[in-house]
């Protein structure tokens, strides 16, 4: 399974993307507010940056899972790994727990 296939499949299973993107958007807007007015990003640029952060998180997950799969070209093996009991719950909880720079609970 290549990265594009993984992203599509993973996003069909995850429940954490929207919450993560909301958190990342808030974080980017906070950073943006600290910029000089002429250097502030518009909402479209903020959205692009949030999507970029999401892609980085998913790519890191892809690489971590890829290291645990014997035949990374076998989509069934990927599906079995990701559909294993509690796997997606643990991944979603981990994604929800990601701290963005300077963020406090």
TrEMBL record:
<protein>
    <submittedName>
        <fullName>Uncharacterized protein</fullName>
    </submittedName>
</protein>
């Amino acid at each position: 399974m290549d990265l594009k296939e993984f992203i599509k499949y993973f996003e069909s299973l995850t429940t954490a993307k929207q919450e993560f993107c909301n958190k990342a958007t808030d974080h980017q807007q906070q950073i943006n507010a600290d910029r000089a007015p002429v250097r502030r990003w518009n909402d479209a640029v903020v959205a692009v940056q949030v999507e970029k952060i999401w892609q980085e998180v998913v790519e890191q997950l892809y690489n971590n899972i890829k290291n645990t799969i014997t035949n990374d070209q076998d989509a069934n093996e990927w599906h079995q790994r990701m559909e294993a009991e509690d796997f997606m719950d643990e991944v979603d909880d981990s994604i929800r727990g990601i701290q963005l720079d300077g963020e406090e609970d």
